[in-house]
Design brief:
elongated; 4 helices; alpha+beta; two-stranded antiparallel sheet; 6 strands
């Protein structure tokens, strides 16, 4: 029998990666997840900011980063400044504060396009997994490990799985776009 579990897991993992990617898009309100991809030099090793500091959200548009080791302040500030986030941190000697500016209409539209592009890229990944699953099922049928009826059922199951994941991507894109447009 042809096993679909591996392909289902790949699709779920791809969807999870897409959703994490969406979380890093700033929507005008502070979200600590936006810093997840940023690394700082901590005693010679690149370490995520959230592993060297406490990140809080004291106000809707403000992140406060309090490093456990005060000597990390400059490294954290530098990592944020040199990133592609387009935000400028301020350092008062104890904490790094990141103020998120209000989004302009143009920036909202630009972010909306970026979200849709990420959604399309995620759909391509899901469709590639579908293609691999169908190829695997067809090879199993040619190798006589499954019947023609099993192949038809596998193809139907693969398509249902694909449709479900693509629908989830569409809903995530719609939700994030709505969030950005209404902030």
């Amino acid at each position: 029998m042809f096993d679909l579990k591996a392909f289902e897991e790949k699709m779920a993992k791809s969807l999870g990666n897409f959703e994490k990617d969406l979380e890093t898009i700033k929507a005008g309100r502070a979200n600590p997840r936006i810093l997840d991809k940023l690394m700082v030099d901590s005693y010679g090793a690149l370490t995520p900011i959230n592993q060297v500091a406490n990140i809080t959200v004291p106000e809707a548009r403000l992140l406060q980063i309090t490093p456990w080791d005060p000597s990390m302040l400059k490294a954290i500030e530098n990592a944020i400044t040199t990133s592609d986030l387009g935000i400028n941190p301020s350092n008062d000697g104890k904490v790094v504060r990141v103020l998120f500016p209000e989004l302009t209409e143009d920036r909202r539209k630009e972010l909306g396009k970026d979200i849709k592009k990420k959604g399309e890229d995620a759909k391509v990944v899901i469709r590639n997994i579908r293609r691999d699953a169908v190829d695997g099922a067809e090879k199993a049928e040619k190798g006589k490990t499954i019947t023609e009826d099993d192949l038809k059922k596998a193809k139907d199951d693969i398509q249902k799985m694909t449709d479900k994941k693509i629908d989830e991507i569409d809903k995530a894109v719609e939700g994030k776009t709505k969030e950005i447009m209404t902030v």
